[in-house]
Amino acid sequence: MKITGVILAAGKGTRMRSAIPKVLHPLAGKPIVWYPIEVTRQVTGHKPVLVIGYGAEAVRQAVGEAADYAFQEPQLGTGHALTQVELILRGNTDFILVVTADMPLFTSETLSQVVQTHSGSQASGNPAPITILTLITDDPSDFGRVLRDRDGKVLGIVEEESATPEQLTRNELNTSVYCLNADWLWEALPRIPLSPKGEYYLTDLVGVAVSDGRMVESVTIRDASQAIGINNRVQLAEAEAVMRRRINQAWMLAGVTLIDPGSTFIESDVKIGEDTVIWPNTYLHGSTQVGKGCVLGPNSILRDTQIGNHCRVLASVTDRAILEDEVEIGPFARLRKGAHLGQGVHMGNFGEVKNSYLGPGTKMGHFSYLGDTTTGPGVNIGAGTITCNYDGVRKHPTEIGADAFIGSDTMLVAPVKVGDGSVTGAGAVVTKDVPPNTLAVGMPARAIRKLVKRD
Question: 154, 260, 295, 330 — which has fewest CB within 10 A?
C-alpha cells in the first residue's frame, strides 16, 4: 500500500511577529519545515506534498526538490488545505499521512506506529478510515480534546475554544497527526461543516467517520516534547532545547564526550568522530565535520569546517576552513573562508588566516595575518607578520617556500614570493621576490647574502 505524506505549511504565523514565514525560522540549523519533510520521507519512502500559502515562493526556494507542492489561497483551515492536494494524489496513493509543519519534533518511530496501526486496522470487518495520534498530558493548553465513549472508542475531537468546562478537564489531546484512507478522504472532505470562523477543520473528519458508523483508530503517546507546536518564539526556544538535547544525546551514545551538554550547541548536519571531546560553550554549525580524537573548545565556534583527526581548537573561530590531521589552533585564532591548514600546522593566539594554504608542519605562533597566501611545508611565521594582500582595488597572492623563516613584524607586500629556505629579518618590508636560501632585511627589504641550505 502506497503511503504519501502531506505537510500543512500554508499559515502566516502572525504570532512569530516576523517577515519570515514561520516554517522557515531556523531550528538546530535547519528550517522548521525541514524536519517534518525528512521524517515523513523516512516513514513513507516517498517525498511528501507540502501545502504552501503565505510566503510560498520563499518556502519553495528553501525546500527545493525535497517535496511536491500544493498551493492554498485563501487559507480556510486544515480541511480546506487537504482539498488542495486532491488533484495531485487522487488515484496515486492509498494512505495519506498528515502532519503540520509547525510541529517538527515527532519522531519517525512515532509516525511509523501511526501508519502501522492504521494499516493493521484495514484487515478488520470495519476498517478504520482514519487513525489519529493523541497525547496524554497534564498541560493541555492550545490543544483540541479527544472525546471517547465509556468503552474507549473515539467519538470526536473538540477544539479548545469550543469545549465545555467538563471537556476541558480531559487530558487526552489531539496532536494534528492523521493517517487516512485516500479514497474515503476525497469523499469525506466535502462533508466537513463550516466552522463559526468560516474555516474547515480536519478534526471534523473524525465526526464524519463516526456518523457513518466507522471505527476511528488511535495511537497515544505520553512524551509531550514531541507535540510542541511552534506558534511564537517562546515555543521555538522550547523546541530548540528539545532538538539540541536529542542531538547531543545521540553524539554521546556514538562515542563523543560532551563535558557539559547543556552548554554545547551542535546543529543537525554536523558529523563528529569517536573519542572527540567537546568542552563547554562550543558551537558546531552547518556542515561542519570533525574527525576522531579531537579536542574542541572551550569557547570555540566552528561553521562549515572540515577537521581531520587528532586536532585541537581552543577558544577559536573557524568559518568554511579545512584542518588536516594533528592541527592545533588557538587560543583566539580565526580561520576565515578558504583557510586550509596542512597536517601538523600550529597556529597560536591572535592569528588570522583567510583564503590561504599553510603547508604541513608550518608554525604561525601569534599576532599574524596571512591572506591569499600559500606556504610550503615547515615554514616559520614570526610574530606580527602581515601579508599586505589588498591594494584598495584587487587582492594579490603571496608565496612562501618550504622551510622559509619569516622574521617578526615582517610585512609581505603582495604580489611577492619568498623562496625555499629563505629568511627575512625582523621588521622587514618585502616588496620584491626573495630568491631561495637568501637573507633579506630592511625597509624595503634587500637580499644581503646567500644562506647555506639547511638539511
Answer: 260
Nearest to 135 by CA among 112, 102, 157, 162: 157
With contact defined as beta carbons under 8 Å apart, do 428 and 442 qualify? yes
Task: Scan for cell 625597509, then name that residue.
Answer: 443
Cα separation of 127 and 179, whole Å? 13
Bridge-based pairing of strands 438-441 and 446-450 is antiparallel
- For 77-126, what is each residue's pLDDT tens digit? 999 999 999 999 999 999 999 999 999 999 999 999 999 999 999 988 88
From 340, 346, 366, 396, the catalytic residue: 366
At a CB cut-off of 8 Å and minimum separation 6, what does 394 contact? Answer: none
Model pTM above 0.85: yes
- State how far the Cα of 141 lies from the Cα of 125, in Å rounded to an integer: 37
Helix (H, G, I), strand (E, B) or coil at 153: coil
User: Using N-to-C axis directions, what is the helix angle for 34-44 and 108-121, rounded to 10°?
Assistant: 40
Q: Which CATH class is domain 3-227?
A: alpha beta
Within the chain, all domains assigned CATH 2.160.10.10 are found at 233-450
pLDDT for 455 beyond 50: no
- Alpha carbons within 13 A on the beta-carbon side of 101: 32
CATH 3.90.550.10 segments of the chain: 3-227
Q: Would you list the DSSP string of 230-288?
A: -SSHHHHHHHHHHHHHHHHHHHHHTT-EES-GGGEEE-TT-EE-TT-EE-SSEEEETT-
Per-residue model confidence as pLDDT tens digits over 312-363: 999 999 999 999 999 999 999 999 999 999 999 999 999 999 999 999 999 9
Architecture of domain 233-450: 3 Solenoid (2.160)
Number of neighbouring beta carbons within 10 Å of residue 393: 6
Cell readout for 240 is 530548540
CA atoms of 142 and 136, how far apart (whole Å): 14
Clarify whether 366 is annotated catalytic: yes
- Cβ neighbours of residue 90 under 8 Å, at least 6 residues apart? 182, 186
CA distances to 144, 167, 348 from 131, in Å: 16, 21, 60
Burial of 106 (C-beta count, 10 Å sphere; 0-12/13-18/19+): buried
Spatial separation of the C-alpha atoms in residues 282 and 376, rounded to whole Å:
31
